[in-house]
C-alpha cells in the first residue's frame, strides 16, 4: 500500500532530514519536489497547490530556519499538513436508538459496493447489531447471488424479491426488518460503469422514498482522481454522508485517499484492504500520514 508515494516522498524528505542548515531557497526547492511527488501520486492538483502553500508558509519562517534541526521541522510540518488535508477522523455510524438504521451504499459498478455491504454487515454484527442486507442491485446480474453468498458466509439474512423495482425491494426489506427484529438495513444499490441519468434517477428515488439514515459512497482507491471526480459528482447530484474507499491494499499512490475529503468535504469512514470480509478498517488520517511518510 502506498509504495510509490512513500518512496518518492522518502527520497525528497530524506534530503531535508540530512541538512543541518536550510535557507528559504532550499526549502522552496525541496517543496517543489514534494509537489511533483504528490502530483505523480495522482492527488488533485488544487489540493496539491493549497497543500504546498500551507507547508511553505509554515516552513520558511525564522523559527524553522533557525531551529536546531530545521529539516526535521519541515518533515513534521509536511506530516501535520497531510493529516489536516484528510480532516478529523470520523468513523462513527450513527445508529438509531429504536427502530431501523438504514444505510444506503452507492457507487459505480465494480467499485466494491457488494463486497463492502458484506464487510459492513460483518462489522455491525460484531457491534451486537442484527443487520439485514437488501439486494437492490438488479443492474448487475451476479450482484444478487454474490450478496446472498456473502450473507450465507456471515449467517446474515439477505432480502431480495424478484420482479420488483429497486425502490420497492428496499422498502419491502425495511418492512421485513421491522417485522423480524433487524435493527440495521444495508441497501446494496446498483451502479453503472459511468455516472448517468438513469442511475441518478434510480438512486434519488430510493433516497427520497426511504430517507436512509446514512448514505456512503463506495469508490475504488486504485482509480485515483477518477474516484475523486465521481465522488464529487455523486455528492452534487445525490449527496452522501461519508466515503468508503475500497481496494486501498492495491493502491500504491494514495491520490484518492489524500484528496477526497478536501474535494468533497465528506469524511472517509472506512477503507477496504482486501477482498475478504474481515478486510475493512476504520480510516484514521494520522495513521495514513505516518504510513506514507514511513
Ligand atoms: P460492485 O460492482 O460495486 O458491487 O463491486 P464488487 O463488490 O463486486 O467488487 C468488485 C471487485 O473488487 C471484486 O472482485 C471484489 O472482490 C474486489 N474488491 C472489493 N473490495 C476490495 C478491497 O478492499 N480490496 C481488494 N483487493 N479487492 C476488493
From TrEMBL:
Q: Which UniProt keywords apply?
A: Cytoplasm, GTP-binding, Hydrolase, Nucleotide-binding, Ribonucleoprotein, RNA-binding, Signal recognition particle
Tell me the residue numbers annotated for binding GTP.
Answer: 107-114, 188-192, 246-249
Q: Which GO terms describe its molecular function?
A: 7S RNA binding; GTP binding; GTPase activity
Substrates-to-products reaction catalysed:
GTP + H2O = GDP + phosphate + H(+)
**Where is this protein found?**
Cytoplasm
Q: What does the entry's domain section say?
A: Composed of three domains: the N-terminal N domain, which is responsible for interactions with the ribosome, the central G domain, which binds GTP, and the C-terminal M domain, which binds the RNA and the signal sequence of the RNC.
Record's protein name: Signal recognition particle protein
Parent sequence residues shown: 1 to 294 of 450
Amino acid at each position: 500500500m502506498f509504495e510509490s508515494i512513500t518512496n518518492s516522498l522518502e527520497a525528497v524528505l530524506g534530503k531535508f532530514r540530512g541538512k543541518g542548515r536550510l535557507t528559504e531557497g532550499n526549502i522552496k526547492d525541496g517543496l517543489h519536489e514534494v509537489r511533483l511527488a504528490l502530483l505523480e501520486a495522482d492527488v488533485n492538483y488544487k489540493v496539491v497547490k493549497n497543500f504546498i502553500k500551507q507547508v511553505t508558509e509554515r516552513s520558511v519562517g525564522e523559527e524553522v530556519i533557525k531551529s536546531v534541526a530545521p529539516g526535521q521541522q519541515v518533515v513534521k510540518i509536511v506530516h501535520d499538513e497531510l493529516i489536516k488535508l484528510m480532516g478529523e477522523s470520523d468513523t462513527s455510524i450513527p445508529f438509531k436508538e429504536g427502530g431501523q438504521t438504514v444505510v444506503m451504499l452507492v457507487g459505480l459498478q465494480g467499485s466494491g459496493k457488494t463486497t463492502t455491504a458484506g464487510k459492513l454487515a460483518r462489522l455491525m454484527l460484531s457491534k451486537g447489531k442484527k443487520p439485514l442486507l437488501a439486494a437492490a442491485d438488479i443492474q448487475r446480474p451476479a450482484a444478487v447471488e454474490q450478496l446472498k453468498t456473502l450473507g450465507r458466509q456471515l449467517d446474515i439474512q439477505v432480502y431480495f424479491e424478484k420482479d420488483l423495482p429497486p425502490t420497492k425491494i428496499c422498502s419491502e426489506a425495511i418492512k421485513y426488518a421491522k417485522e423480524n427484529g433487524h435493527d440495521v438495513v444495508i441497501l446494496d444499490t446498483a451502479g453503472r460503469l459511468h455516472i448517468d441519468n438513469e442511475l441518478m434517477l434510480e438512486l434519488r428515488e430510493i433516497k427520497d422514498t426511504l430517507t436512509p439514515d446514512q448514505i456512503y459512497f463506495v469508490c475504488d482507491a486504485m482509480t485515483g482522481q477518477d474516484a475523486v471526480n465521481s465522488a464529487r459528482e455523486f455528492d452534487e447530484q445525490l449527496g452522501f454522508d461519508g466515503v468508503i474507499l475500497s481496494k486501498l491494499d492495491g493502491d500504491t499512490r494514495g491520490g484518492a485517499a489524500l484528496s477526497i475529503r478536501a474535494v468533497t468535504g465528506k469524511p472517509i469512514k472506512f477503507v477496504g484492504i482486501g477482498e475478504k470480509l474481515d478486510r475493512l478498517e476504520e480510516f484514521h488520517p494520522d495513521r495514513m500520514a505516518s504510513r506514507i511518510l514511513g
